[in-house]
Amino acid sequence: MAEYPEDESSSTSFGYSNQQNDISGLRPPYKAFRCPISREIMQDPVFIESGYTFERGALVKSFEVFTKRGRKQVCPITLKELSSTSIIPNIALRSAIEEWKETNDAIALEKAVVHLTNDGADSDVLWSMEFIVQFCKKNTYNKTLLRKKGVVTVIADMLRSANETVRLRVLEALRILVEENDGNKDVLAEGDIVRTVIKFLTQGTFQEKDLAVSLLYELSKANILSERIGCVDGVMIILAGIASDTESNSIAEKADQVLKNLGKCESNIMQLAEVGRIEPLFDMLLHGTPEKQSQMASHLKKLVLSNDLKLLMADKAGPTLVKMLNEGDNVAQESSLTALCQISSNEESAKMLIEDKILSPVINYLFVVGPNHLASHRMKMKELAAICLSNLVSSGVDFTVIPINDKYNTLVSENTVEDLLHLVSNTGPAIQFKLIQALTTLTGFKSAVIPIVDAIKISGALTTLIQLIEAPRMEIRVASLKLLQNLLGHMDQELAKIICQNSGQLGSLVQVISETSLLTEEHVATIGLLGGLSQSDSSLTTQLAELGAFEIFASQVARIRQGDVSSNRYTAPALEGLVKILTRITFMLQENQKNIQLAISLNLASLFTDLLGTNGSDEVLINSATALANLSTESKNLSKVPQQPAHKLNLINRLSRKQASVVTKPCPVHRGQCSAKDTFCLIECKAMEKLIQCLDNSNKNVVEAALGALCTLLEDGTDSDEAIWLLYELGGIELIFDVLIQDETKALQRKAVWAVERILRIEDMAKQAAGHASVGIALGRAFQLGDSSTREVARKALEHIKRLPVFSDIYYTTK
Length: 815
Fold this sequence. Notes:
Layout: E1 45-47, E2 53-55, H1 56-68, E3 88-89, H2 91-117, H3 122-138, H4 141-148, H5 151-157, H6 164-178, H7 182-188, H8 193-203, H9 206-219, H10 223-230, H11 235-243, H12 249-262, H13 269-274, H14 279-287, H15 290-300, H16 307-327, H17 330-343, H18 347-355, H19 359-367, H20 375-392, H21 414-425, H22 429-442, H23 446-459, H24 462-467, H25 474-487, H26 492-501, H27 503-514, H28 521-532, H29 538-546, H30 549-562, H31 571-582, H32 593-601, H33 604-612, H34 618-633, H35 635-638, H36 651-663, H37 687-694, H38 700-711, H39 720-729, H40 732-742, H41 746-759, H42 763-770, H43 773-785, H44 788-800
Antiparallel strand pairs: 1-2, 1-3
Helix pairs in contact: 2-3, 3-6, 6-9, 8-9, 9-12, 11-12, 14-15, 15-17, 16-17, 16-18, 17-20, 19-20, 20-22, 21-22, 21-23, 22-25, 25-28, 27-28, 27-30, 28-31, 30-31, 31-34, 33-34, 33-37, 34-38, 37-38, 38-41, 40-41, 40-43, 41-44, 43-44
């Protein structure tokens, strides 16, 4: 076998591109280096009994072909039959080929280094990068060799090349260089190479981003590189964004792996948690040393958690944090309780924490008394416990059945509530605010309000709570006002009595409402409290009148409706509350003539009538209609019936009387001189039309209030016939019939039956109703199922339409 080298002009060396065949100094391969079958330079040369050498893979395939054809094996060169197909490695030739490759690799490597270090042409650089990639793939030592020659740093510097193709080759080469080579990773940890790679994630092309993520994945396997990557501002957000990109699954998966690697470095845990990668923090919190657990809990308090993360935290870390709260040192206790405060701010996560028995330690920290040298820690824990308690009670669970200690006391047990109230009176504003919030939330539940009210009565804490509505801090004032609102209906008389005993306190509440161009939560809470107090409390109404409060409230209503007060989310509830407060005047007209004069001066009939037509809330409609009903009841007493002229009047007097009668006709219903302002006449203030419209409202409470107001025109002492014909002309009769037919509530049925009976007293109306089968059925139902007074009125109505016989009185005479 000839062992001569091939012509240099026709040679190619394994691993080099054709365009670099002219590298000076490269040794051409010997002919013996090539396989006679494949004509390629052999990697694993073997010989057979004929003495010829072949590439193992090519020879095996040749044997397989002969076997499949059922022929005997022959030498591929001589075609002579072989007695044996044994294959023997040609170690000498293999060594010669390897030596030749190494020699040429060394020559090519030097050439590549020259291209890279001397700012060669892009084509030279690209060849060099391709060579280095293939060179690294041959064996792992080559990567180390390149580092020793300083090539790794040179390649990294070329990341700033203006040629995109060069940058792509550089990123690929760097990835291969650092695979399973910590030394090369250490090189990339120096300088700002890592920062440059990360820039490709936001500023590079799709291919650059892909290769950059792959490179970062390899780098992040080393702890020092993981830390360096985490030090780059915004890298976690960038990687998290790529990992969540469903349109690029391959890159997203790599980015996800990078984030997982980064999570193994403790210095990255906090940053990862900030972008929602909470698992590393969980792992350390659940399985770390007590010191690490405390650090992780401390990290948690700095995070802004989404509701989903709060649920996850409560589920996975809740028991651990509660255990730290019970058993940890001061630092661990404070860190864990701070974290629990944030987690418990979600309703569902709070429920999970309650199941983990968080209530007991929280209550203990509220009431604990410890050594003076721990005063600051104790106070901090009290504040955190108050925050946590405020969050927990918002979960909506039934706290009447959840024990907080081994004595089976609950959060609403008398002793517990009294302790909370005592703490409210004897603590700083931060704790005070949260405890009042907690009590406010608890009193919003029917199951909890009664025992809390009982505890307040026994402890005499109501005075303290009322005093807090004048606290310096607004949030405490608002919280106290809300708590007192929840107590309305349970402690009305006590509340009103204490407020009335201190006119300055009542004046302060009025002052709050008067001073505003922008409504706030405090205004609404103050209005809500005054509006919720019993309207039958004459003493409170009198004091409000003496303070000029009603004039202020009426003015505020006008300002809101005119837009002089900036509209916001508090506008509607403020208007509702102010209207309700103004109705107080109308509940005590007969008892106090001053209230009538006040209603006249404020022109309340017109005000409430206007409120019916403003498309306001149902509450405004209900209170306005109720107030009009109260005012209208007094109209028949206030209407001035004109005196009959004397028979003997001179001509001048007769003419003046005639002119006066033309100017002011008597009210057809009240039979006297009426006006909207002075007699509250519903006809004069044009309220009838609006009240009739309210009869078609979907809210039955609005319907009931409107019908109640219209019924005042049908009462004894009025000309009800005239009122009925007015209702008929305005389309009110049919709507009243509809109210009766719908039969929604007992109270509404009672009013509707009463009104219909009055209407049916007019024969024409009775005839019309007689042909309305539904009216008869509704009256029949009321006659059978109503209360005693309703049944009696329904009976009369049925008689009007001939549905019941009318019996004469039976007299028994004696002889």
